[in-house]
Structure formats: structure tokens, C-alpha cells
Design goal:
Helices cover 38% and strands 17% of the residues. The chain is α/β, with parallel strands linked by helices. It has a single domain, classed as TIM Barrel, CATH 3.20.20.
Length: 277
């Protein structure tokens, strides 16, 4: 029965998903709010470009779900809040799940829930909290036929990178992705590898579980489009991008460009023509 909801996420023709993440305000970082200060406006802009899904929190999902009509993107509900993204980390790190997450997702008519699985150097307690979150939500996802997206996220040391910088080492990404699958993920949301040409190994290690690729930090259009093209060619089932859309000068155009790559097999060069100069 999870397939019924998952069908709302994946395009009928391409069988791929483009999920736009606009849940950044959950994490109490000023820099994350750039481009989404007015979330109502941001959601409507993205909705107009018609991605498959939009990722939001319990406090902001109404901006999507209150829109009239039946053509709006599906809701992916963020279920956990963390304080691990700052350039200067607090004394104690945490990753906490909202109460009754699947029940809240059902009330909000979500098509999927998403939860983090962090690997942060010298912070095993946070990894433990993430695993406990997953163990807690998984039975309810199965009981109520709610697809579970797990987000394996490997960090570089904060003292080295100076904030939220992902580690694209496949030797770290691969086992964490596999752990997420072993914990019962229905969908994986994973980082790109530093060497994009080896991403097929991430897809392989996930087995039959579809892998959506995270966008990560803000990058130039050419880099994002070319990377996305290579990832899709290697079997990625779609993408989950946030700041590279919401902080773009033409978020609707960037959404359409990425959708052309994900769903129509367009090249990066062809897709770039859909973005306003």
C-alpha cells in the first residue's frame, strides 16, 4: 500500500522524482533563510514550476496543502529537527523527532516522511539519536503505509570545514546508505560523491531502493546542471535540491531546467536555456 503514496512522488513517464526542499527554517540558521524569508511566496513560485514534490515542515506545510486544485506537488514532511549545521557548533548537539510524526503526516496528507541519519566526526551520540528516531518511526510508517525517506548525511569535521560541509567520500557514504537501507528506508536521499562518475556504486549499494540525490551547498548553474545530468545517467531515481533553487535569481527557471534533465533526459546545455540570464 505504500506504493499508492509513492506513486504521487514519482513521475509516471520517467519513474523519477524531483523534490524541492524548503524545510531549512527548521534548523535555526540565519543563512538557511535566504530566499525563503517569505515562504508563502517561495512555495507558490516553486509550485508554479510543477516539481513532483516539495519538502516542508509541520509548521509550514499549510502553504502547500492549502492551495486549491489537485495538480499541486506532493508533500514530503520533514520529521526531525537538529542543531548540527552552524559554523560554530553548540556545546551539545541533538537530532530530535517531532511527536507522532506519521499521524501528523497523515493529517497533512503527506505522500512521504523524511528523517536524517547523520555521521558527524566525534559525535556518536547524534548518530545514536538518528537511529533511535528511525527505529521509532519505521513501525508506524509500515502500519499506516507511509513511505519512509532516510537521509544519510556524512559531515566533514567542523574545525576543518567551518560549518555544514558534506563529505563526498564514497567510503563513508556507501556504508551509511547501506545502513539506511538495512534500517528499512523506502527511499534514500543521499549526497553526491566527490567523484560524480562513481555514483553508480551508491545506487548499487541501495539495491532496489530508489536513490534521490541531495543538492548540497549553493553552486554555479553549470556545475549543478552537469552534475545532475551525470547522476541521472548513472541510475539515480531523482533529486532533492533546496538552496540551488530557492536561492537562485530565477527559481522557477532553475526548477524547469532540472526537471528537463530528470524527466526528459535533456542535456545540461539544453536545460540551461530554460533559465533566465
Amino acid at each position: 500500500m505504500k506504493t499508492y503514496r509513492a506513486n504521487r512522488l514519482f513521475n509516471a513517464k520517467s519513474c523519477r522524482c524531483f523534490d524541492v526542499a524548503i524545510d531549512h527554517g527548521f534548523f535555526n540558521e540565519r543563512a538557511f533563510l535566504q530566499g525563503i524569508e517569505n515562504l508563502d511566496k517561495a512555495v507558490k513560485t516553486v509550485v508554479a514550476a510543477a516539481p513532483d514534490a516539495i519538502q516542508l515542515t509541520v509548521g509550514q506545510a499549510h502553504f502547500l496543502q492549502s492551495l486549491p486544485g489537485k495538480e499541486r506537488p506532493a508533500l514530503v514532511l520533514r520529521t526531525d529537527v537538529a542543531n548540527v549545521y552552524g559554523s560554530t557548533l553548540p556545546r551539545v548537539l541533538f537530532s530530535r523527532m517531532i511527536e507522532a510524526p506519521v499521524e501528523q503526516a497523515l493529517r497533512l496528507d503527506a505522500a512521504c516522511v523524511v528523517v536524517n541519519l547523520f555521521r558527524i566526526p566525534e559525535q556518536p551520540e547524534v548518530a545514536d539519536q538518528c537511529i533511535q528516531n528511525i527505529l521509532r518511526i519505521k513501525p508506524d510508517c509500515d502500519r499506516f503505509a507511509m513511505p519512509l525517506m532516510i537521509e544519510p548525511l556524512v559531515f566533514q569535521p567542523n574545525q576543518k570545514a567551518g560549518g555544514y560541509i558534506v563529505d563526498g567520500d564514497p567510503d563513508k557514504i556507501l556504508p551509511l546508505v547501506r545502513q539506511a537501507v538495512e534500517l528499512g528506508a523506502d527511499i534514500i536521499k543521499a549526497d553526491p560523491t566527490d567523484d560524480v562518475s562513481v555514483y553508480h556504486k551508491v545506487v548499487e549499494i541501495a539495491g532496489r531502493i530508489p536513490v534521490l540525490v541531495r543538492g548540497g551547498g549553493k553552486a554555479p548553474d553549470k556545475e549543478i546542471l552537469e552534475r545532475t545530468e551525470k547522476l541521472i545517467q548513472q541510475g539515480a531515481a531523482g533529486i532533492v535540491y533546496g538552496r540551488n533553487i530557492i536561492q537562485h535569481t530565477d527559481p522557477a527557471g532553475m526548477t524547469r531546467a532540472l526537471m528537463a534533465i530528470v524527466h526528459e533526459g535533456a542535456s545540461a546545455k539544453q536545460a540551461a536555456q530554460l533559465i533566465k540570464a
